[in-house]
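Q: I'm writing up a methods section and want to include an example of the input and output format. Could you take the sequence below and give the corresponding predicted structure tokens, formatted cleanly so I can copy it straight into the document?
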Amino acid sequence: MSDVSAQTTSQVADTIARRTADGRGALVGYLPVGFPDLTTSIDAAVALVNSGVDVLELGLPYSDPVMDGPVIQAATQTAIAEGFRLRHGFQAVKEVRSQVDAPVLLMTYWNPVLQYGVDRFADDLATAGGAGLITPDLIPDEAESWLAASERVGLDRVFLAAPSSSDTRLASATAASRGFVYAVSTMGITGARSDVDRAARVLVERLRGAGADSVCVGLGISTAEQVAEILDYADGAIVGSALVSALTQGGVSAAAEVAERLAQGKRAR
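A: Here is the clean output for your methods example:
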């Protein structure tokens, strides 16, 4: 186990707090590492930040992405076919952080972390300059090893909360999360939708009641108008499929254009 010094504050929470304080709110942008290839995925991530994304969420491709929609599934399977390896995630974080100052979270299913080694994963992510993990299939009750490792090196841990979650589960996710709580606005898999579920507003209110300081809403956001709607009551709006679709269809410039358009939702407030 390497000796990695823990951060004393959460860069993600600080970034979101600054955006909330200036009345804009935060835009969180997702892209998978290695799609369509490693170099392009890094260039695209940098372009998102330069186009108005405040926090990056880089997904680690996984062979069984049960919570991802068809656009993201197709992209991650392409990345795997092109030779993605877990070490490429740390490489991407390091290279992105060398070019932009925005915090970078990795989104990963839990099995790859277990296979790699929880402490080793935490050390390598911290060394690369990463801010923490979003773990969609890990619940706080089963996260003891990750809570300990992330605390040791000062990494954020973002847990998910859904409209169907009990008050007890929401309290657990709030207590265990560091950086923000990820509010899943609709039930089911990810994917851009024409209308963001109204249940998101109620879920954010419930998380506030459970003590959450920072809540970001994701799943289904694809327009600047939806970003503005979310930021009326949440601290951040998370966009994935719309950005991945743009990258798929038009490359880095198209993804940057969509990010810039989405960022107008912050200014619309």
